[in-house]
Amino acid sequence: MNYPRYQSFFNADWTPIPIKVLRSRNPALVLCFLQEAFKADNYSPALTNERLVGNLADFLEIWGDADDDSLISVMMSYDEKATKLIKDWVREGYLTLYTNDQGDDLHSLTPDMETVLGWVASLMQKRSFVGTESRFLDIVQKLRELVPNTADCPAHQVH
């Protein structure tokens, strides 16, 4: 029986990263920001801590931060919130933190986060494709209805 194995996925002591991120307080923030930071137009396998914090602070300023409404968080600047979130994401296992030869702190996505981002991106592409296909079929159907109803001469009607 597999039920105990399924239960272990939701154990508070050991939860896989994909489930942890999807059950987090604000998965849209985590997934959207990390997708844009690491995977968008110019793929970057590693970003400096300074750049990542700056990008996240800008992201939070534009989109707001519904993640934490505590009094301490309200009094924090966007840079402080971004620094805190990055540290939390490293602790949760979404990002790795290491130092390069020049002494710069670098972050990269963990393999599990790469998987989650790929999975979510594929779901979003499927959704837009299905929507596009259904709109296309709707347009074709309307054209089929329009043509027979607009031609006066039956010889000019398209079937």
Molecular structure report:
This protein has 159 residues and is mainly α. It has a single domain (3-120), classed as Arc Repressor Mutant, subunit A, CATH 1.10.10. 63% of the residues lie in helices and 8% in strands. It contains seven helices and three strands; from the N terminus they run H-H-H-E-H-H-H-E-E-H. The chain has a three-stranded antiparallel sheet. The longest helix is centred in the C-terminal third of the chain and has 40 residues, at 111-150. It comes from Spirosoma foliorum. InterPro entries: DUF3375.
Give the terminus-to-terminus CA distance: 57 Å
With helices defined by DSSP (H or I, 4 residues minimum), what is the helix count?
A: 7
Describe the strand arrangement of the main beta sheet, using strand numbers: 1-3-2
β-strand number: 3
Unreliable stretches, pLDDT < 50, 5 or more residues? none
Outline: elongated
Radius of gyration: 24 Å
- Kindly state the percentage of residues in helix: 55-70%
Number of domains: 1
Structural class of the helices, strands and pairings?
Answer: mainly alpha
Can you summarize the main beta sheet?
3 strands, antiparallel
Strand content: 5-15%
CATH topology: Arc Repressor Mutant, subunit A
The CATH architecture designation is Orthogonal Bundle
Could you state the order of secondary-structure elements as H and E?
Answer: HHHEHHHEEH
Organism: Spirosoma foliorum
Pfam families: DUF3375 (PF11855)
Protein name: DUF3375 family protein
InterPro entries: DUF3375
